[in-house]
Specification:
Elements (H helix, E strand, L loop, with lengths): L2 H10 L9 E3 L7 E2 L5 E11 L10 H19 L2 E11 L4 H17 L4 E8 L4 E11 L14 E5 L4 H9 L7 H12 L5 H7 L5 E4 L4 H12 L2 E4 L8 H5 L2 H9 L6 E5 L9 E8 L3 E4 L2 E3 L8
Parallel strand pairs: 4-5, 9-12
Antiparallel strand pairs: 1-2, 3-6, 4-6, 7-10, 7-11, 8-10, 9-11, 12-13
Helix pairs in contact: 2-3, 2-6, 4-5, 4-9
The structure holds adenosine-5'-diphosphate and magnesium ion.
């Protein structure tokens, strides 16, 4: 790395580290993180490629925020407490305006997700590629996995679903809601909230959990397959934001098939009360596969919205 590149890291990324967990952060050959005694390390990595995972005209602040938030969502889905993150950045050129804005968005996500930056790698390459690795901790016996759903469990989801798919329809000019609704949906898409506090709360409470990144049906399909059960959903119980509800059948398709909401979908033993902000949307049954309102359903049937 040239002195110039090191200066860029010092300028834009050094300040995002710190905190009790990082014993040694940016500046040495590797970082040292303290793991709470008796807990296991939970780690996940996600890559965003410009033009593939986000449009080239996305604000760099939003790219920085989203890159960390989507990775952090995987920690939430495991019930892990956030520890720290690392960033591998490939850029065609050291564009300081881009770096300044990107690092501001990333800093906001580091604060919101409680994930200080412990290190990274910076390289020059033909396209902008952002890889974020996240580290969390959880008592080994409390990790939320996909394979624990049992017949009789309730199926729940946090927040509202279909918002990110609705935002994509706005960005692609396929749908034109009012300006206020559009602004709220676009904010949801660009600044997803990793449900870390909910994930921690669900430890020892939920029997299985997943984050909604590919779409509610696709992701609950993973839970059903891993757990060896069937899942039956009731479409009238899907929690929708008002504009998505007003979109009728299209809104329902966004809620069931659209990805990128980064809410948590999870199963609870019968009789448990869903946490605040979460909605019961169905139940776990004997068998295999997914159904909606009694009709067999799979993710592929809901991709055409
Ligand atoms: P090495 O050559 O030992 O791999 P580097 O020159 O790649 O080290 O990085 C020097 C220091 O800067 C390391 O501590 C590394 O973690 C940190 N670093 C490099 N790029 C980034 C980045 N994009 N974000 C945060 N830290 C970074
Ligand atoms: Mg390196």
């Amino acid at each position: 790395m040239s002195p110039n590149e090191f200066e860029l890291i010092r300028r834009y990324f050094w300040g995002l580290g710190g905190g009790a967990v990082i014993r040694l952060g940016i500046g040495d050959d590797a970082a040292l993180l303290d793991l709470p005694p008796g807990e296991v390390l939970v780690t996940s990595v996600d890559t965003l490629v410009e033009g593939v995972h986000y449009p080239e005209d996305t604000f760099p602040e939003d790219v920085g925020y989203r890159a960390l938030a989507v990775a952090a969502s995987d920690l939430a889905a495991m019930g892990a407490s956030p520890l720290a993150c690392t960033l591998a950045l490939t850029l065609p050129a050291p564009d300081e305006l881009w770096l300044q804005a990107f690092s501001e968005g990333l800093a906001q996500a580091c604060a919101d997700c409680r994930l200080p930056l412990a290190g990274g790698d910076t390289t020059r390459g033909p396209a902008t590629v952002i890889t974020v690795q996240v580290f969390g901790a959880c008592p080994a016996n409390a990790v939320l996995r996909r394979d624990g759903a049992r017949p009789g469990d309730q199926v729940c989801v946090s927040g509202t679903v279909g918002d990110a798919a609705a935002a994509l329809a706005i960005l692609e000019e396929r749908w034109h809601p009012g300006p206020e609704a559009a602004a709220a949906l676009l904010e949801r898409f660009h600044r997803p909230a990793a449900r870390l506090a909910l994930g921690e709360h669900l430890r020892g409470v939920a029997t299985a959990a997943i984050d909604v990144s590919d779409g509610l049906l696709a992701d609950l399909g993973h839970v059903a397959a891993a757990s060896g059960v069937a899942i039956a959903l009731a479409s009238e119980s899907l929690p929708l934001s008002p504009a998505v509800a007003a979109a009728g059948e299209r809104g329902r398709a966004w809620a069931l098939g659209g990805g990128d909401d980064y809410e948590l979908a999870f199963t609870l033993p019968a009789g448990a009360v869903p946490p605040e902000g979460c909605t019961r949307i169905g139940e776990v049954c004997e068998g295999a596969g997914l159904s909606v309102d009694g009709e067999p359903a799979d993710a592929s049937g809901y991709r055409h919205f």
